[in-house]
Design a protein that fits this description.
The protein is an alpha/beta fold. It has four helices and nine strands, in the order E-H-E-H-E-H-E-H-E-E-E-E-E. About 35% of the residues are buried.
Length: about 200
């Protein structure tokens, strides 16, 4: 099941915008648990630009890596023939909900069934696919900006905390990375699944 998750007031407790509040450890653990059980987590927030980057980094620093950031699951896009502005999900975790109750939300997440036949794959990107970057300076890179394009060259590394895959991308027109120990240029950098999306194919 796709789960749309707000950031301010959910992952992080309310702070003085745009500052980020304290992490809600129990909520984060519940969200990580649903992901391990086969559910898909989508970050659904009003934050944009550097404030979105901060939210993504904050989440990752606390062990939470979203499957998608502000975009619908490609399976839903394919099913309905388009990517609507609203995040389409089976469950919304949103503190502005009229019936919001933090404890009940955590309890519901903890009691979601395991999706044993989930179509979600850990490696839903493949070597050779072209991707675009969704955040600025992923994983402590320098001058690697949102919208950058590149090609995946490796996907055998896993994050030590989340155990989710990371992808080594050869980025276009960028040389502040490394050569991966096997290429000539320093245009390579590892990114998480939540930090990239498939690039649109150029028209024939």
């Amino acid at each position: 099941m796709d789960i749309a998750v707000d950031f301010d007031g959910v992952v992080a407790k309310d702070g003085a915008w745009p500052e980020i509040g304290e992490p809600d450890a129990r909520m984060i653990l519940a969200l990580i648990g649903t992901q391990k059980n086969g559910h898909v987590l989508i970050l659904d927030t009003c934050r944009t630009g550097k404030y979105l980057d901060e939210a993504v980094r904050f989440s990752m620093a606390h062990g939470l890596t979203f499957d998608y950031i502000g975009e619908n699951n490609p399976e839903r896009i394919a099913k309905y023939g388009g990517d609507c502005r609203k995040i389409s999900a089976g469950l919304y975790v949103e503190d502005k909900d009229a019936c919001w109750n933090r404890e009940l939300a955590i309890e519901r997440l903890n009691n979601l069934p395991v999706v044993s036949n989930s179509s979600k794959q850990a490696h839903d990107f493949a070597v050779g696919e072209r991707v675009r970057l969704l955040v600025n300076d992923p994983i402590e890179s320098t001058d690697l900006v949102t919208g950058s394009l590149g090609i995946i060259v490796d996907c055998e590394q896993f994050d030590e905390i989340t155990k989710l895959p990371e992808f080594l991308v050869n980025w276009d027109n960028w040389g502040e990375g490394h050569n991966g120990g096997r290429w000539e240029t320093n245009s390579h950098w590892w990114v998480s699944r939540a930090q990239i999306a498939l690039a649109e194919k150029a028209p024939d």
